[in-house]
Amino acid sequence: MSNRQPKVPFVNLSLQHQPIQSQIAEAIRKIIQEGDFILGKALAEFETAFAAASGVKYGVGVACGTDAIALGLQACGINPGDEIIIPANTFIATAIAVLQAKAIPILVDCDPETALIDLTAAETAVTSKTKAIIPVHLYGQMVSPRQLLDFAKRHDLIIFEDAAQAHLAHREGYRAGSIGKAAAFSFYPSKNLGSFGDGGMLITNDAQLAEKMRTLRNYGAPSKYLHTEIGTNSRLDNLQAAVLNVKLPYLEKWNRDRTDAAQHYDTLLEPLKHKGIVPIANHSSSGHIYHLYVIKITEESSIDRNTLQEKLGQHGIQTGIHYPLPCHLQPAYQNLGNRGDFPRAETLCQQILSLPMYPGLSNTHIEQVVRAIVLSLNC
């Protein structure tokens, strides 16, 4: 890809921010004027509002999504040596957070159609040491709540949702974050609800868990200079909370924009399935909020994924890969498994390509992307 401005960027945040720029500026100005920077009013308002929007009672803002998982597991009573089931096909932060909680991540393979965790494969991963499962609601689509609840009940496990890519996603009558004991969200800038830096939140219906989480994020102190837990410093600051408070009322519309864009992609890409261009399956209907729009370039394709990505770049189309290596093939985490242990995740990582997706993505741009794919296949 050259240094020229792309014809179709992978993400364009300015389309979100420009119409509400004055509201954001006023919210930031108010925080500065009041000097209310840490654990203040804006944070409390956002915690309440985001938890309610997600269908739960309590929210606890932290510095990032990884901390939301790690501290959340600690608050849930996960102990050193406990085993936690996670998908092999996830961002490495899921595994890192489990390790930070001094637990043991146990990887399982994914469903090749949805790229979500395969709960049938997870059955064989349960041992006497298994205490929880972390379903990752990947790309904006939730793991089936009914199947999750049945799985957890059979094995007496905690469900702790990694909902970093699933803000207000829904499926089978549940919002993301409302299925299990607790859930973690990220507000990284490119997320469906993004801050102007790092940020995260744990949400839950358990009042005691929420209170313990507030203690853990603030040096393990329920009150100033009284430290009852071995905690850390991980607080979502008020400036970020103020920005998120402005953006939250627009989130449903932004999610609908993404869903509309995905439907247009689906329609245009349908004739290319027999040529090996296959979108990741949507089993959630309108509940999929398309943090990412991901296609597979299968063996039926005339070119491989890397070649297609290169050719799209030559056409001015930015793309991404989420993710190019499963967790167990990362150099630092080879103790989590060996090559061949999770064949579907390993195959997917060679096939998947994320196309441009963001609120305000025009049909014209989507048509440019698909036209470039067709031209690339016919070269």
What does this structure look like?
Helices cover 37% and strands 13% of the residues. The protein is α/β, with parallel strands linked by helices and 379 residues long.
Main sheet record: 7 strands, mixed
Write down the secondary-structure element order.
HHHEHEHEHEHEEEEEHHHEEHHEH
SS elements, strand count: 12
Spatial sequence of strands, sheet with the most strands:
1-9-8-5-4-2-3
Q: Assign an overall shape.
A: globular
Contiguous low-pLDDT stretches (5 residues minimum) are: none
What is the straight-line distance between the termini? 18 Å
Secondary structure: helix percent = 25-40%
By DSSP (H or I, 4+ residues per run), the number of helices equals 13
As a whole number of angstroms, the C-alpha radius of gyration is 21 Å
Class based on secondary structure composition and strand pairing: alpha/beta
Estimate the strand proportion: 5-15%
- Average predicted local confidence, pLDDT: 97
What are the salient characteristics of this protein?
379 residues; alpha/beta; 7-stranded mixed beta sheet; 3-stranded antiparallel beta sheet; 13 helices; 12 strands; 37% helix; globular
Question: Can you describe this structure in just a few lines?
Answer:
This protein is of the alpha/beta class. The protein has helices spanning 14-17, 21-34, 41-53, 65-75, 93-100, 119-123, 145-155, 207-217, 238-247, 251-269, 305-314, 343-351, 363-378, and strands spanning 58-62, 83-87, 104-108, 130-133, 158-162, 170-171, 174-175, 182-186, 200-204, 277-279, 293-297, 352-355. Strand 2, helix 5 (93-100) and strand 3 form a beta-alpha-beta unit.
